[in-house]
Each structure stands twice: as C-alpha cells, then as structure tokens.
Amino acid sequence: MKSIVALADCNSFYASCERAMRPDLDGHPIVVLSNNDTMVVAASAEAKAMGIDLGVPLFKIQPLIKKHGIAVFSSNYTLYADLSERVMETMARFVMHYEVYSIDEAFLSLSEFADLDLTHYGKTIREAVKREVGIPVSVGIAGTKTLSKVATKVAKKLTDGVYDIRGNEKAILEKFPVEDVWGIGWQYTKLLHRWGVSTALDFTRLPERWVQKHMTVDGLRTQMELKGIPCLPLQEIRPTRKQMVVSRGFGKVVEVREELEEALCDYATLAAWRLRREGLAAKSISIFIMTSPFRPGPQYANIATARFPEATNSTVAFIRAIREILPRIYRSGYAYRKAGVILPELCNEKLIQGNLFVSFLERKEQRLLQAIDKINDRWGREVVHFGATGLAQPWAMRRERLSPCFTTNWGELPVAYVS
Predict the structure, then answer these.
(1) Nearest to 278 by CA among 350, 375, 195, 183
(2) Structural domain that includes position 367
(3) For residue 364, is it within any domain?
(4) Which residues form the UmuC domain (predicted)?
C-alpha cells in the first residue's frame, strides 16, 4: 500500500482557542502571552499582519494594542489542552491510524483512502473540526511526513486550507527555504548555506554520503523523505515519558522559605495529577530554586533530591518529600525568581515493585486522591486542594488577562441570554 500522509495543523492554536470561546472576536486581532504575561507566544493572522512577531515583549506592542484594540490574553493551558483533545478526537473519526504530534498537530494516515478525492476529504476533516470544536485547521497531504509538513505550510496560504503536494513536489521544493524544512535546525542551516544550499530542492540533490557524514542518519532520513521515500512511520502509541518537569517563574520575587514551599507543593500537586492521569509513578523527586541571572544582586541556585521507598504518584508523598529536602538548599537573603519540581525516573504504575515497609495508610491515600481527582475533574482543578499549596499565593505566576476555563469548569461555563 502506497504511503499517503496528511498533517493537520491548527492555525494560531492558542489564539484560535480564545476566539472559539469568544465569537465576538471573529476577525479581531488577538495575542496570547507567555508565563507571567511577559511576551507574545501566539498571534492571530490579523495581529501578525500588523507586524507583531512571536517573542516580542508586551511593553513594545502597547501602542499597537491601544491603537487597534487588540485582544490580549494570558496563556490558559487548561482550556488549550481540553480543546486540543477535542480536535484530535474529531479528526480520529475520519482515519484508521493517526499520530498526535503536538498539542496542535496530528499526522493522519490516508493510505486506506487512496481512491478518494483526498483534497475533498481533507476539506471534510477541516470543516468537521471547525464546526464541532471551533478551531481552524490547515491540512497538507503528501507521500511522507516531512513532505506533509511542507504541504501544510502551503495550505496555510490558501483560502481553503488544504493542499495535496503529490505530483507537484519539485515545483514547491524549488521555492521552499531549506531553513523551513522540518528537522533542519539553525546549525545545519548555516552549514548548508555555506555549501550553497538555499532551498529544499537543493538539499535533495546533495550526495547521500555527504548528508549522512555531516548531518547524521537523521539528516539522511529528512533528505529521503523529501525525495518521497517514507522513513518516519506513524507513532500511534506515544512513547512513555521518561521524566516530568513542572516549573514556573514567580509573579514577584520570593524571599521567605514558606512561600517557596507553597509554590513547590503547588507544582508537585500538578505533577502528581499528571502522573495519575497517564498511569505513571515516580521513583524520586527533585526540587530546584534559583534567583534571576538578569537582576542585580547576589545570585544563588541549588537542587535537592529525595527517593521514595517505592515508586509513587501520591501528592501527599511529594509534599512530604518537599518539606524534608527544601531546608537543605534554602538560603535566606536571596530574591528567588523561579522554582520547579523534577521527576527524573518514571515508570508504569502497574509495574511498581511492592515494599513491605510501605504503610497501609499510604495505600488509603490513593483512594483519597482518586476521590479528589474526580471532584476536580468535574468542577475545576483546584476546587479541592492541599493546604500546603497556600491560599493567597502571592508568588503565583502573573496571569492578569486569563480567560475562563469554559470547557472544564462548571463554574465558568459561558452563559447565553435569549431576549
């Protein structure tokens, strides 16, 4: 069976999520900010047309915001994750095999539908996602995953948002910048430019031996894929996480140990919830604290680790460990700007080797956590939370323009009025 792959890529995903919940913003410029509302991480097509680039600091675009009434949002990761799941579930109905590549991208196998008009089929998928979830999607169709990435970039420039590159690869690759090819980073781009390679087509004409020597086997796979030879199969089962990191910059500097402890316990609570959701457990936990290297004053950073008697995903165990190891690294007199929790050794929770010395009480904790998860999944993540995470949370990440969690919190459901 000949390989046919489509890449479905959500357009300006974060901005599109905000617009999906706010139809009054249709056609209106939107930007979404990074953690602590410092810089732009997503922008709608209207905002990009005004010259707003990703990564630009918020203060630099304040004149444009005031002049054009640009809608500005803090990152609402809860909303984006939920809408991403809905997008993927919708697209999965149309194919037998697919790979969720990122929060806003998925590879779809269309090999089984080779006899259909695949451009029309791509439009059908696109229209279903827009109708059912409210998110615009561009679809690129090709013989390989790398070529489908190229096709999707072309599709984003078309009004119907779908492009089948098959039969027209040479003409497209001849004009496609080599630096925009999936898998070719900045260092390889500089190397290729020195050798006179500026387009994707130029890259396909390089000797294979040279590519493998200078760009390893990964570079050779990229070249083969651009030639239409599939080298990257769909990964329908996501690789199991090897580690997990939850870290945040503080909304203000933190100097006292109690506030650091609250922040770390909050991050650990989120990490533990993610582990339980994915069926994983941690053999150890590490925490780090650090000052900002960009601020004047004394600098300090350190990390501490605790091992568990047996792998766990218990929030209680994580909090207990943090309270034990934080005093080892905390030093007074420093203005801390960031902290985080690292779970470096993860395993399947069903494969945990039992320990005779783990108490019956800790087994009961799991039933408690399951009950808390059910409540929070229904009513919002922090409806029931541990006191160790604090109440006022003055250290919390600054998100002054946060939209409601419309789809995951009953208390924040949008209200419709009928006159």
Answers:
(1) 350
(2) 244-389
(3) yes
(4) 5-185
